[in-house]
Structures are given as C-alpha cells and as structure tokens.
Amino acid sequence: MTDLTPPDATLAAYRDQVREAMKAFDAEDFAAWEADRHIPRSALTLLAGRGLFRARWADGAYLGIGRMTTLIEELFRYDSGLAIAAMGQSEIFIGALARHGSSGAHAALLEDALAGRAVGCFAATEPQGGAQLAGIRTRATAEDDGWHLRGTKRYISNIGRATHAVLLARTDKAENAADLSLFIVPLNTAGVTVDGFFDAAGVQSCDVGQLSVDAHLPADALLGSPGLGLLYASHLLQFERLAICALLLAGGESALELAAGHARGRHTDGGRVIDKQVIRHHLATARADLWNLQSRFAEILAFARREQALPPHQISALKLSAGKRVLEIIDLSMQIFGARGNTTAYPLEKLWRDCRIARVGGGTDEVLSDMVASFVDRPDRRVEQYLAEARDLDVPLPSVARGHRATALVR
Ligand SMILES: Cc1cc2nc3c(=O)[nH]c(=O)nc-3n(C[C@H](O)[C@H](O)[C@H](O)COP(=O)(O)OP(=O)(O)OC[C@H]3O[C@@H](n4cnc5c(N)ncnc54)[C@H](O)[C@@H]3O)c2cc1C
Prior knowledge:
This protein folds into three domains: 111 residues, Butyryl-Coa Dehydrogenase, subunit A, domain 1 (Orthogonal Bundle), CATH 1.10.540.10; 107 residues, Butyryl-CoA Dehydrogenase, subunit A, domain 2; 146 residues, Butyryl-CoA Dehydrogenase, subunit A, domain 3, CATH 1.20.140.10. Helix content is 53%, strand content 14%. The strands form three sheets. The protein has a four-stranded mixed beta sheet with strand order 1-4-5-8. The protein is globular. InterPro entries: Acyl-CoA_dehydrogenase, Acyl-CoA_Oxase/DH_mid-dom, Acyl-CoA_Oxase/DH_mid-dom_sf, AcylCo_DH-like_C, AcylCo_DH/oxidase_C, AcylCoA_DH/ox_N, AcylCoA_DH/ox_N_sf, AcylCoA_DH/oxidase_NM_dom_sf. Belongs to the acyl-CoA dehydrogenase family. It comes from Actinospica acidithermotolerans.
C-alpha cells in the first residue's frame, strides 16, 4: 500500500499511532456503523483518547498538516465515514476554535474537542443552496446579552452524533457576503433541533442531516469578529479540501492496486487480462496520472509547512483534478473487475460511491472551477505586451522569407 503523505520519521510514527488506534475496531464495527448510518461518538472519543487530534494540532495548523492528511488517508482506508467525521472534528471544529477562539469558554471547549468529549460538525449549506456560501439566509440578530439565531441548515455530516455545530449565519440585513459570521452552537440548546437525516448513496456510515435553529445563544457563541465569517469559513475549507484530496488519492490508490492485481491474476482465453494491450495501457496511464496528482499533493503540503500558508487556487485545482481523475480510475478499475466490480464482495462499488460525493462536498467542481478561473483571468502585463508585439507583426508580407517572429516570451 503506497503512503501518500511524504515519508518522514515523525509522520511514520504518527501513521503507526493511527493504525494502532484503529485496532480497537474490526470489520463488524464498520459494518454496524454502516447499517446504523452513524459514526458512534465513542469512535471519535477513542481517536481523541489516543492523542491523534492533539498530535495533529501540537505544532499548529500548518506544521501539523502532514499529520492531518495522514490521519484522514489512514481512516479512509478503514471507514470512509470515520474519515469524514474526523475531518469535521479536526479541521473545522478544532480548527475554528484554535484559530478564532477568544474566551475562556472557547478554550475549555477546545480542550473538550481535543479530548473527544465534544464532537463538532460544520453547518453551512442551506435548503436553497450550498454552492454559493455568500447566499446564506440563516440570521443572527444581536440581542442585549447575546444572539438570536434563526434558520435551517442541510446536508451536515455527522450532525447525528455531534455535540456542537460550527455555523455560518448572516449578522446583518444586507445580502452581502461581508455580513456573514461564524458561531459555535451547542446542539443541546433549547430551540436547536436535528430534524432528521438523508438517505445517501456515498459514505453511508456517516450521517448527513438537517438542523433547524430558532434559539438564543450567549455573546461568546460568536467566533472571531462579526462580518468575517465567510473569510474564516473559506480558510477552514482549504484544510477540508486538502483532507478530501487525501481521501480521494487514497481511494484511487486502492482501486488501482486492486485492478492491477486482478488483471495480473485473471486469465481469459489462455492469457492474463493484464497482457491485453488496451488494459495494460489504461492501467499505465492511470498509474502515471495518480503519481502526478500525488506529487502535486506532496508539493502543496511542503508549501504549507514551509510558508505557513495554504495556496487556495492550487488546492482548488488539485481537488478539481483529483475528483475527476480518481473517479475515472475507480471506474476503470470496476471495468477491469467485470461483474465482480459491481458486487459488494469487492470494495470498488463502495469506493466509487464514497469518492463520487467528493466532487460536491467541500466545494463543488463548478465552484472550484470558478476559483481557478479567477486565477487564469488575472491580467499579466508581460503576456499582454508580448501579444501586442505579436499582433503588430501579424501582417501579410511580400515574401515568406522575410517573416519576423515576436521575441520569445520570457519571464
Ligand atoms: C456527503 C456530503 C456531505 C456534506 N457535508 C456537509 C457538511 O458537513 N456541512 C455543510 O454545510 N454542507 C455539507 N454538504 C453540502 C455541500 O457542501 C453542498 O451540497 C454543496 O456545497 C452544493 O450545494 P447544494 O447541494 O445545495 O447544490 P446547489 O447550490 O443547489 O448547486 C447545484 C449545482 O449547481 C452548481 N452551481 C450552483 N451555483 C453555481 C454558480 N454560481 N456557478 C456555477 N455552478 C453553480 C453547483 O456547483 C451544483 O453543481 C455535504 C454534501 C455531501 C454530498
């Protein structure tokens, strides 16, 4: 099994720590979670008790990023729902409290989250749409002694077993992105209701549910400054997107390893399936593309550690490319398995379902494309000038031999 996150001694030890912790569960547990459609809170408490969240955050958001992707990648190999729930716990709940917490209550809640006594989820999407967070309608009205929150949130992962939601709401009447703020909502607050859950094709062990809020909350339910919620949420989502890349690449790697193994072992009309050139080349192209995506992933992790920052356009581009290509690789792997790929005896149909939703959750392909397009659409004086020179030369000449070429485009 190829480990995605670049090897170093501390990461190898952390990976072993995750694998050791996961020995507490077996195939029957994973099957039970999937049948129940919930990750038990105790599973996250166990991971926390083994120090996995604390170790991820010990050196801060950026230096601990390799531990984060190692955690998600490893958990995904055992149970995709546990990986999603842990991602919400670590990158949204703990991340929001660590970065924006300011009160004693926030510090105490952060400690509870690291210890697994509190479990968090992220409530951003609403019934009228989730792709454009700037359109959020949930209202937070300032009151003398706190806030009144009113609204409905949908498709929230792990809401069924969480104790708190990190919730994005509008703190002013104007329909302006700058009016969004981030709140911590204890789910046992009067007026906070989990309405129910959606039956879903992918990641069946982690619930996705709906939350209704018509509740009074104390002043320190607000995280950070009012009006900066979209900025905060966008930053947290960068970490979530990298985590999703980790699980996508883990899914692609598993599918490809299995497909290659099956093609090597299966014989048809006297020859191995892998000896058919069409299969061989498909597998080779998939391997090449997966290596390239893994390299890009490693570069982004190295950048985060070196610069103490995340490159948002590059992360969006990686999730966009990985989402599409990994799905194609899983599809190819199912094809190579023939009818067996469709049976639950092999993990391919589940990998396909679990990875498919990565193209929606954490930023849809369309939203990510828009984000990358905003990078492509930046003016570049050097290129503009070069094109103007080339345009001047782009005229008919009396003789081809006298043709000019614009000087090379150099940086
Ligand atoms: C498994 C799973 C887990 C999830 N977990 C969470 C969670 O924990 N918390 C949470 O808040 N949300 C969660 N979501 C919701 C997810 O973030 C949203 O589904 C996603 O943002 C899209 O929102 P929507 O489903 O409302 O689609 P819509 O916003 O209705 O969009 C429908 C389609 O139109 C496209 N579209 C919309 N606007 C534009 C535009 N301006 N330009 C181009 N295309 C556009 C979208 O990309 C999409 O393809 C989860 C979703 C899934 C599938």
